[in-house]
Amino acid sequence: MAETKNARTVLFVHHSNDLYGADVVLLETVKRLDRSRFAPFVVLPEDCRSEGGLAAELERLGVRFQFYPLAVMRRSYFKPGRIFPHLLEFIRAVTGLIRMVREQRVAIVHSNTLAVCAGAIAARITKTPHVWHVHEMLVSPERGRRAMHFAACRLSTIVVCISEAVRQHLLADQPKFGGRLVVVHDGLPLEDFFPVSDGSTFRQELGIPASAPFIGMVGRLNHWKGQVVFVHAAKMVLDRFPDAHFLVVGSVFGNDQHYLDVLKSEVERAGISGSFRICDFRRDVPQILSSLDVFVHPSLLPEPFGLVVIEAMAACRPVVATAHGGPLEMIEDGVSGHLVPPGDATALAGKIAVCLEDRASSRAMGKRGQERALGLFHVSRYIERIQAIYDAILEARLSADFEDTAGSRPGVTATRPCVSGRR
Question: What is the pTM of this model?
Answer without folding.
Answer: 0.87
